[in-house]
Amino acid sequence: AIELAKLGHEVTVFTSRYPDEEYEYPDIITVKRFKPLFRIGNAPFIPQLLREIKDFDIVHLHYPFFFGGEFIHFIKKLRNIHYVITYHNDVILPGMLNFPLKFYKTMLMKQILKNAEKIIVTSLDYARNSELWKISEIQEKIVGIPNGV
């Protein structure tokens, strides 16, 4: 975000408010922190995204972001925004928790990924060995961008 702002782009970061977070962001970017209505693990439920995300050229979604991914997908349908995804990892849950996760992956995750303009991964090798590759409709959208050092 900071590097994009240095290049002259207007950048807004949307995130949840964490009680113990003290990081101060530079003034060249706008940061909007929302108090989640609730959390499940690290996944904050922040419906404020629905009213705040509008009139942006593009939204960069870090995924998996349960609740956030669904909101961005809905906003795309509502306001025709464009979004790209950085896909960080496959989610694997133990035992009975895996059943609702399979439903989620089949119904929601697949749609969120299919509607992205591009899907960024740290390596194409990772993508080919992840759950992404099982979704044939998105394979042409996947691009590898290694992490910077």
Radius of gyration: 16 Å
Mean pLDDT: 92
Helix/strand class: alpha/beta
Number of extended strands: 8
Q: Architecture of the largest domain, according to CATH?
A: 3-Layer(aba) Sandwich
CATH top level assignment of the largest domain: Alpha Beta
Proportion of strand residues: 15-25%
- Distance N to C terminus: 16 Å
Count structural domains: 2
The poorly predicted ranges are: none
Spatial sequence of strands, sheet with the most strands: 5-6-7-8
H/E element order: HEEEEHEHEHEHE
State the CATH topology of the largest domain.
Rossmann fold
Biggest beta sheet attributes = 4 strands, parallel
Q: Going by CATH, what is the homologous superfamily of the largest domain?
A: Glycogen Phosphorylase B
What is the percent of helical residues?
25-40%
Describe, in plain words, how this protein is organized in 3D:
The chain has 149 residues and is an alpha/beta fold. It has 2 domains: 1-35, no CATH class; 38-144, Glycogen Phosphorylase B (Rossmann fold). It contains 5 helices and 8 strands. Helix 3 (68-79) packs parallel to helix 4 (98-114).
Q: Could you give a quick summary of the protein structure above?
A:
This protein is of the alpha/beta class and 149 residues long. The chain is built from five helices and eight strands; from the N terminus they run αββββαβαβαβαβ.
